[in-house]
Write a structure and sequence with these properties.
Number of strands: 2
Largest sheet: 2 strands, antiparallel
Helix content: 55-70%
Distance between the termini: 74 Å
Number of helices: 2
Number of domains: 2
Strand content: under 5%
Structural class: mainly alpha
Radius of gyration: 26 Å
Length: 92
């Protein structure tokens, strides 16, 4: 009997798990083995590792969607207020 082949979805999930695991290990390894570089001014150079790389993209998409919904509501309110669009049920 042959081995069951992974589906495309399973391969993608495994790849994402591998990437997430490697990011987690880099953060641990870099914090344990990190030696700060001292310059002549005795400033410490630090680097930060983004543990959630998708977070900024998700927040940006959510913000754009929220702002577009609010803008549509304001435009609809002004159209109804100026009686450009008259709905018999709504009276302003």
């Amino acid at each position: 009997m042959g081995n069951k082949q992974k589906t495309r979805k399973e391969k993608i999930i495994a790849d994402l798990r591998r990437q997430l695991y490697s990011l987690g290990n880099q953060g641990v390894a870099s914090s344990e083995n990190y030696k700060p570089k001292h310059t002549g001014n005795s400033k410490v150079v630090t680097t930060t590792l983004n543990a959630y790389p998708y977070l900024l993209h998700d927040i940006l998409k959510t913000g754009i969607l929220t702002m577009s919904i609010v803008a549509c509501q304001v435009i609809l309110f002004l159209i109804l207020k100026k009686h450009i669009l008259v709905l018999p049920i709504v009276s302003y």
